[in-house]
Amino acid sequence: MKNKLLLLIGFLISGSSLMAQSTYQWKTASSGGYTYKYVTNDPTKARFYTLKNGLTVVLSPNTKEPIIEFRLAVRAGSNTDPKNATGLAHYLEHMLFKGTEKFGTLDYAKEKPLLDKISALYEQYRGTTDPEKRKAIYAEIDKTSGEASNYSIANEYDKMMKSIGGQSTNAHTWYEETVYKEDFPSNATDQFLALQAERFRSPVFRIFHTELEAVYEEKNRGLDNDTWKVEEKTSEKLFPTHNYGQQTTIGTIDHLKNPSLVEIRKYYNKYYVPNNMILAFAGDFNPDELIKKVDQSFAYMKPKPFELYNPAPEKPLTSIQKIDVYGPSAESVKISYRGYAESTTQSMLLDLISSILSNGKAGLIDINLKQQQKVQAAGTGYQQMKDYGIFYLYAQPKQGQTLEQAQQLLLDQISILKKGNFDESLIKATVANSKLGLLEAFEKNSFRVEAITNEFILNRGVNWNKSLNTPDAMAKVTKKQIIDFANQFFKDNYVVTYKHKGEDKSIAKVEKPAITPVNTNASETSTFAKNLYAMPVKPIAPKFLDYKKDLSFGKEGIAEIITVQNKDNSIFSLTYKFDLGAWNYQLLPYAAQYLTFLSTDKYSAEDINKQFYNIACNYSFSVGNETAAITVSGLQENFDKAVSLVEHIFANCKPNEQALVELKNRILKGRENNKLNKSTILSGLTTYAQYGANNPFNYTLSNEAVKNITSEQLLDLIHNIGNYKHTIAYFGPKTLSTFTADIGKLHKLPKEFTPEAPAKKFSYTSTNTNQVFFADYDMVQSEVRWLRNSGTYDPALASKINLFNSYFGGGMGSIVFQTIRESKALAYSTFAVFSSPDRKDKEYAMVAYVGSQADKMNDAVVGMNELLNELPRADKSFEVSKANALNAIETTRITKGDIIGAYFSDQKLGFDRDSRIDEYLGLKPLTFADIKTFHEQKVANKTYNYCIVASEKNVKTEDMQKFGAVTKLTLEQIFGY
Question: Would you list the DSSP string of 183-248?
């Protein structure tokens, strides 16, 4: 379960002229026997109910697809952890997936005495300091846990969610919240409510010590994450007394090592009460019918008095505080100010100021630092919590620049702001640009429930009207107000955090305890689950695309046109799609980067950015290995302006030699930074394993070649890109005929297209023997990825691959997850999938992954290899996986501009129809025997390439040699420079 960076209510605070004439007022209404509150002109049409027991329920209907997004949130997180048991709320979050007296167990009467004994042993363990006695107690915990696991059914919750069509089971804990996340088909509402009501009725904390080990792994992953370390250290200084800075969500190592099931139960009983919880639904339902069902399902909950965290106010910060953080990743500097409570005018102003400083196009940082390439990267943000916010500016220094110099450049932008040296139109433009974001966002059910849940966490939802009204309020802010506030707020009252490249000598990892694998009983099913599976469900028929009907095909000159009409709002997206990329022209990606810094004969680069921001439109020139695209998007009312400006830029951009010098320096610095990123290194290792020494990852210019790039070379590609064959794709309000007529006036085409250069070809490796490709990196964890090329694309395999992945290694209910994490506690993160190519001339790859403590790596590799070679049979898990795969296709609705994307994807695979039709029909007759045969033919007893990123200090070469012949790769071999 991942920690979450809070979804700021700034999605509304950013403002929107769309709502400028609206008023947002609370009203009360009754329907279906229930009274609810709502806000007038609310685009989400949310109904706020308070049930008799105090439970808040919010329903936001959206019937465009047969899916419902769900959040259950509790207003309790790490802030409310006991001082002597930090991390407790997060522990509890993990435990809420383990079942109750009715599910997750074969025989609770026999299981309970063992669970009680485990709880008592943990109390004894917690109160013992003698190492040998602690070791003996833990051995008893391990032994008793093994006995208890004979009665438990691991991941039965996940299986039930999977069976009813859930695709995104997850949860997160943060400062003042614990949120449980689901989606489900609208025809499974009764099943879903029955499961959730039981889940929170009386949770049982079983399979604890292996789940605790997963939390240890999560802690150790945090120790390898320099960004997390910067966040924690910064918060400590910003909040010297508040728990925002004094208690982390994951908890201290000492508290992790000494958990208390007794304290976890007390926490649950205290905070998981209906008057402190919200259930938010967005999707395909009738609100009158759903609220009745929710009420009936959760009426058992009884309200209780409770007290949330209520700290004394922090004293004002009156000095600059400096922090040094060390780690292997790239250097950076972050300046952080303590902000204000939610729903305050000050917080609104800080969010607006964040956009004035950095909005991606025309902010002060965008123009003065990024456009002029004075730093490697830079930006701002405002993070809102309940009691305070955090306003921050960050930068990565460019080549030869110190952290202090980058810091000063950021502070210079604050000075410019305080002096008022910015255009007041930035305020109006910020409001206008949010119109575009809101139009898109409110159509997403996940966005709706996140926003509603966040509103409840911050203020119990009472300010929903104020949040919706914020755009109007923001539009009224004057430049003088901004200047006055900035001069009052931005003083020598910040925390500056320097992230240095170097060894972090303060790391003390959580050590691996001795754990005997527990039984998962994956093939067993509780009576509750059987009854749930047996509940009647009205089928949902799949809706497949008919490209001949769902798309409109036309032609303008020699270019093909494909359109889909947007009948819902005024958003458009226009793309010129080229079937060429970096494999055709190595300089093309550099040309795309260079373009953003160029002026034309009419406009400076700064003017161009401001124009796009002022008309609430965007454009991009993206270059992949095999394709490239020029995309323009925004509000249809500004279509002609935006497209004309893009056409003008590509035709008339002029060289800027100084910009090119700076760009090349930034590219070289970026390359250095890439070599410090463990995820990027692992990606390079994997590509090396797949293709060999010459591969797509390291097919790039040498550093010397980068230094020799000329403006003439890049401009030649930019000016002539429109002469290469491309398809024009449009999603927007216009019909095909109207669009064709309009684009013909704006987009000039040649009489014939210029043939593109042949694309670079890469050969796949033959994995004839086990091999290990190793990269040394200073880290606590080890990252291991298996890879085997597995033959060219065959459309007949799509159904089997879908079902195999669902059953074997994709998701928390899969065989791999249950075995590696649940039973053996060998990793926090693990998966294994048969990966399909995106083109018919490419190969499949069997890919597996385990991220674990370095001292568990050997056991983790053995555990994964056992699964790769022998597919366990769990009939119920197979049935659930098959139902989930079918349900995913039945309930998926590809709409709007995504139809064009699906068409292009199917074309690459050789389909002239919706490929899901064949996949769906192929799924229905599949049996476990089919999947087992697939596993035997494609996966089992094969040779693999092992890609390992770890520290040489923590893993031994002789251990890796047991997996295969070891090749230690240099970063130059991996990256090609």
Answer: EEEGGGHHHHHHHHHHHTTSB---SHHHHHHHHHHHHHHHHT-HHHHHHHHHHHHH-SSSHHHH--
Is there a common fold for 547-746 and 771-975? Answer: yes
CB atoms within 10 A of CB 429: 24
| End-to-end CA gap in the chain | 37
Q: Which of 679, 696, 966 is nearest to 842 (CA)?
A: 696
Q: Is 343 left (phi over 0), alpha (psi -120 to 50) or beta?
A: left
Q: Is the pLDDT of residue 645 over 50?
A: yes
- pLDDT of 20-32, one tens digit each? 345 899 999 999 9
Query: Tokens at residue 772, please?
Result: 């290990």
Query: Which residue is associated with the tokens 């989606």?
Result: 183
Contact 226, 328 (CB under 8 A): yes
Give yes or no for residue 15 having a pLDDT over 70: no
Of 84, 122, 76, 73, residue with least CA distance to 261: 122
Tokens 């359109």, residue?
A: 563
The answer to whether 906 touches 914, Cβ cutoff 8 Å, is: yes
> DSSP code of 820?
I
> Which residues, 6 or more positions from 752, have their beta carbon under 8 angstroms from its beta carbon?
558
- pLDDT tens digits along 702-742: 999 999 999 999 999 999 999 999 999 999 999 999 999 99
3-state secondary structure at position 402: coil
Sheet bearing 177-185, strands edge to edge: 26-31, 34-39, 47-50, 56-61, 277-283, 67-74, 177-185, 170-174
Instruction: Output the six-digit token pair for 247.
Output: 């208690």
- The enclosing H or E element of 428 equals helix 425-441
Residue with tokens 């119990």: 460
Phi/psi at 382 (5° precision) = -130, 120
Q: Using an 8 Å Cβ cutoff, are 972 and 814 in contact?
A: no
- How far is the C-alpha of 909 from the C-alpha of 741, rounded, in Å? 32
Q: What tokens appear for 316 in the block?
A: 């004002």
Q: What angle do CA 82, 87, 88 make, to 5 degrees?
A: 60
- The first and second tokens of residue 384, run together, are 């809102």
The number of residues in the chain equals: 977
How far apart are the C-alpha atoms of 781 and 224, rounded to whole Å? Answer: 7
3-state secondary structure of 60: strand
Is 171 within 8 Å of 71 (Cβ atoms)? Answer: no
Residue 34 gets the label, from left (phi > 0), alpha (psi -120 to 50) or beta, of beta
Dihedral angle computed from the Cα positions of residues 517, 518, 522 and 523, in that order, rounded to the nearest 10 degrees: 110
Contacts of 665 (CB under 8 A, 6+ apart): 373, 398, 399
Q: What one-character DSSP code corresponds to residue 562?
A: E
**SS3 assignment, position 160:** helix
Q: Which sequence spans correspond to the domains of the chain?
A: 547-746, 771-975
Residue 257 has pLDDT above 50, yes or no: yes
Six token digits for residue 56: 């808040």
Among 433, 355, 430, which residue's Cα sits nearest to residue 618?
Answer: 433
DSSP state of 105: B
Rg (CA), the chain: 29
Determine the CATH number of domain 547-746: 3.30.830.10
| d(C-alpha 239, C-alpha 389), whole Å | 11
Which two tokens mark 527?
């009576």
Q: How far is CA 324 from each of CA 51, 232, 327, 598, 777, rounded to the nearest angstrom?
A: 50, 12, 10, 37, 21
This prediction's pTM: 0.93
CATH architecture entry for 771-975: 2-Layer Sandwich (3.30)
Q: How many other CB atoms sit within 10 Å of the CB of residue 104?
A: 28
DSSP-based three-state secondary structure for 511? coil
Secondary structure of residue 776 in the 3-state scheme:
strand
* 195 contacts 808 by C-beta, under 8 angstroms: no
Structure tokens, 627 = 């394709």
